[in-house]
Structures are given as structure tokens and as C-alpha cells.
From TrEMBL:
The gene is murA. Pathway: Cell wall biogenesis; peptidoglycan biosynthesis. One of its GO terms (biological process) is cell wall organization. The lineage of its organism: Bacteria, Pseudomonadati, Pseudomonadota, Gammaproteobacteria, Moraxellales. It catalyses: phosphoenolpyruvate + UDP-N-acetyl-alpha-D-glucosamine = UDP-N-acetyl-3-O-(1-carboxyvinyl)-alpha-D-glucosamine + phosphate. This is UDP-N-acetylglucosamine 1-carboxyvinyltransferase. It comes from Acinetobacter larvae. Cell wall formation. Adds enolpyruvyl to UDP-N-acetylglucosamine.
Length: 419
């Protein structure tokens, strides 16, 4: 199993190119199932999760080709609507093929995704929303069996909580339903907006973009198009956090400051100088020790849960103390015990953590537990004195394209070692 060996104490400087967003590429790939003519998706990040979903879509009979950062697909010859557990268990966002398969073929059999380290990750809201459009849903032997006589019917969907995946699934079903669907309490993440933009380019009729109420007027057919995946706002925030953590100056390119304003404001509260360009962001923390800042994770446009572990790591070496509240997932503090092994002072009470900044972290062997927690350990190792060995870094390969190369490009001493 691969590990990272990181020698800390280096101030990161330079430019890093941001890739397409994992959490946009996944729903956009699922939406390719809806196209009756060939389509092309560019700026697709080369990640384990993306490769898993490409494999699953190929298994449906879609002619799909993934070269470099471009995926081409021809979904005119889909010959089955079955998404097997073997693939879905490794990548829970596979559940996103349910809505498009049901909308286009009237039936689908998709494995229930397992939970993961950060929570049970149920999909009850996805299923409730599809039933509101007339789907008959049965869950049996770990699979969702969904079918509808004729076409799905437009209807009223109200989510009990903001759900990114639920909003994406119902959007990809409603676009081919007969009639108008209103989706209330819809997620407003930039990845949803990206999906809406591509669906409209394919011929869908959707109003309310960027709001919490989406109105979809169903059409009979959707065609392929050419589309580019939006920049990854979490990867952007993660590399800017590396500059804050090491007292450096990093410029992230091929990104968009509007995607992560709540995060940028927290970096400024920490004392960083943040400069925003059209498609770049620079964070300068040279000669400064960040101030620990409190924050609470909330749905977009507020502070994203996917940046919680990374900002907690910066707080761990910050001046003063701060409270971190995780309101989205029930178990997203798995990085705390690992950061504590490196000398962090963090007290957890339920979904709140009080972080008291320390001058220096010290290297220690640690273990990655989930994707974003892994990056927080990398951040801690970059700032710690000595050599840190991080185990189970397969978690990080799921969501960060070429992480060693990108960090080495900023001066980091990091290498992948196989045990
Ligand atoms: C997406 O997960 C992202 N993944 C997650 O990123 C992100 O953390 C999350 O949205 C929140 O922003 C992808 O886009 C592939 P949710 P998703 O449905 O859609 C509960 C990363 O690190 N819920 O918005 O699964 C759920 O348990 C990953 O890149 C239900 O109870 O998240 C959670 O507490 C981690 N029932 C909350 O809602 C449901 O049917 C938000 O989940 C659906 C969700």
C-alpha cells in the first residue's frame, strides 16, 4: 500500500494549475447517459473515482473513451441498466446513474452505495424525489430496483435537507419527464450549476439556476454537446491552505474565485493577503503565522464541508484558538486523532471541535482515513518538523490529480513510497 514521505519546514512558493472538479465531473459523466447523440466532456480530472464511473458507464453499453482530460461518449447503444455492487461500493456517487437511466429507459437496477468513513450517506432523499415523479422503487438485496410505466411525470419535490447528490439525481430524471418539475430546497453548489449548464446545452429547459428552487420543463429528447468541467474549488482551497500553512505564497490558476468566496474570506480573516483574478487566486502568508479562525460548515454559498479538515489543519498551528462546527456529516472529524498525534491541540465535543493553535507540529507516522482528511495530514506534514509518513494514501488519489507533482512544483519535499 502506497505511503507519502514528507519532509516538513519548506515554505511553498509558486504556481499550481487547478484541475476540473471531481464533484462536477461525476454528475456530468452520469448525464452523458441522457444524450441520444455523441458528446464530448473536457477538463475531466484523471482520478480513481472518475475512472471507476467511466468503467461503470461502459458496462451499461455506452461507447465511452477517456483520453487525457477528454471523455467522448456515445450512449445511443445502451443495452443494460444495471450498476453492479462491485463498482458502486468503491465509488458511491455511482448512484447518480439512477436518475438518467430511469428517465431514459423507464427502469434501472443500481446497487445501494455503501456508507463511508464520514457518515452513513443514505440516499432516501434521492428515492423519495424519484417517487414524486412517478417511479416505483423497491430496495432489495442491496439494490435499488426502479421502474416507471411510460415516462416519468413532472411533479413537486421538496428535499428534507440540502442534498447535492439528491438534487443532481432528480435533475437528471426531471429533464426527460412529461411536464414540469419543481425542486425545492435544491442544493446550490457550483457543481449543480455546472450540471444545469450542460443539461441546457443538451436541450433541457431549466429555470432558477443558482437558487434553491429549480423548475424543470421536461423534453422528449436530449442531444450530445461539447462541454468543459468547471474548476475544482476544493482542490483550489486545498493548495491555498498549503500556502497559509507554510507561510508561503501560492497562485492557483485555471480556477475561479467566485467558486469559493466563503473560503477566501476565512483565509483573509487568518491574516493572508488574497488577490483575485478572473481565473486565478494568489494567497500570500509570507512572514506570518495564521490567526486561528472559527467557522461552521454549511451548504453553498457558505463554508464547504469539503474544506473543513484542511482549514482545521491551518488552525492547528494558528495564533489563539477557534471553534470548528461540522453541520453536514455526522463523522467528519477522523483527521483529529491523526493531527493530535502530530502535536495538535484539538478537543472534540460532538460536531464541534475547539482548536488551540500550537507553534509547531512534529512529524509522526499517521494514517489517512478519508479523502479530505488525507489532505489535512499532508498540510500538517508540510508544516511539521521532521519526516512524516502518511499511510493509506489511496484515499487521496480519489480526489487530487497528480498531488505529488503539484506539491513538488511548489517546492514541497514529498515522495510516494510503496511499503
Ligand atoms: C456531495 O456528496 C459531494 N460528493 C461530497 O464531497 C460533499 O461533501 C457533499 O456533497 C456535501 O457538499 C460528490 O459530489 C461526489 P449530500 P453527497 O447528499 O451528494 C444527508 C468529497 O470529499 N443525506 O449533499 O453524497 C447526508 O447523509 C465528497 O469530495 C441524507 O440524509 O452529499 C449528509 O449528511 C465527500 N439522505 C447530507 O445529507 C439523502 O438521500 C449532505 O449530503 C442524501 C443526503
Amino acid at each position: 500500500m502506497d505511503k507519502f514521505l514528507i519532509t516538513g519546514g519548506v515554505t511553498l512558493q509558486g504556481e499550481v494549475r487547478i484541475s476540473g472538479a471531481k464533484n462536477a465531473a461525476l454528475p456530468l459523466l452520469a448525464a452523458m447517459i441522457l444524450a441520444e447523440t455523441p458528446m464530448t466532456l473536457r477538463n475531466v480530472p484523471n482520478l480513481m473515482d472518475v475512472n471507476t464511473l467511466v468503467k461503470l458507464i461502459a458496462g451499461l453499453g455506452v461507447k465511452i473513451n477517456y483520453q487525457g482530460d477528454t471523455v467522448t461518449a456515445d450512449a445511443s447503444s445502451i443495452d443494460n441498466q444495471f450498476a453492479p455492487y462491485e463498482l458502486v461500493k468503491t465509488m458511491r456517487a455511482s448512484i447518480l446513474v439512477l436518475g438518467p437511466l430511469l428517465a431514459r429507459y423507464g427502469h434501472a437496477q443500481v446497487s445501494l452505495p455503501g456508507g463511508c468513513a464520514i457518515g452513513s450517506r443514505p440516499v432516501d432523499q434521492h428515492l423519495k424525489a424519484l417517487e414524486a415523479l412517478g417511479a416505483q422503487i423497491e430496495v432489495e438485496a442491496g439494490y435499488v430496483h426502479a421502474k416507471v410505466d411510460g415516462r416519468l411525470k413532472g411533479g413537486e419535490v421538496i428535499f428534507d435537507m440540502v442534498t447535492v447528490g439528491g438534487t443532481e439525481n432528480i435533475l437528471m430524471a426531471a429533464v426527460l419527464a412529461d411536464g414540469v418539475t419543481t425542486i425545492r430546497n435544491a442544493a446550490r453548489e457550483p457543481e449543480i450549476t455546472d450540471l444545469v449548464h450542460m443539461l441546457i446545452k443538451m436541450g433541457a429547459k431549466i429555470d432558477g439556476i443558482d437558487t434553491d428552487t429549480l423548475v424543470v420543463t421536461g423534453v422528449e429528447h436530449l442531444n450530445g454537446c461539447e462541454y468543459a468541467v468547471v474548476a475544482d474549488r476544493i482542490e483550489t482551497g486545498s493548495y491555498l491552505a498549503a500556502a497559509a500553512m507554510t507561510g508561503g505564497c501560492v497562485k492557483t490558476t485555471h480556477t475561479d474565485p467566485n467558486l469559493l468566496e466563503a473560503v477566501l474570506e476565512k483565509f483573509e480573516e487568518m491574516g493572508a493577503e488574497v488577490t483575485r483574478g478572473d481565473d486565478w487566486i494568489e494567497l500570500d502568508m509570507q512572514g506570518k503565522r495564521p490567526k486561528a479562525v472559527s467557522f461552521r460548515t454549511l451548504p453553498h454559498p457558505d463554508f464547504p464541508t469539503d474544506m473543513q479538515a484542511q482549514l482545521m489543519a491551518v488552525n492547528a498551528i494558528g495564533r489563539g484558538f477557534a471553534t470548528v462546527s461540522e453541520t453536514i456529516f455526522e463523522n467528519r472529524f477522523m483527521h483529529v486523532p491523526e493531527l493530535s498525534r502530530m502535536g495538535a491541540n484539538i478537543q472534540v465535543e460532538g460536531n464541534d471541535a475547539v482548536v488551540t493553535g500550537v507553534e509547531k507540529l512534529s512529524a509522526a507516522p499517521v494514517m489517512a482515513t478519508d479523502l479530505r482528511a488525507s489532505f489535512s495530514l499532508v498540510l500538517a506534514a508540510l508544516a511539521a518538523e521532521g519526516e512524516t509518513l502518511i499511510d493509506r494514501i489511496y484515499h487521496i488519489d480519489r480526489g487530487y490529480e497528480q498531488i505529488e507533482e503539484k506539491l513538488q512544483g511548489l517546492g514541497a519535499k514529498i515522495k510516494r513510497v510503496s511499503s
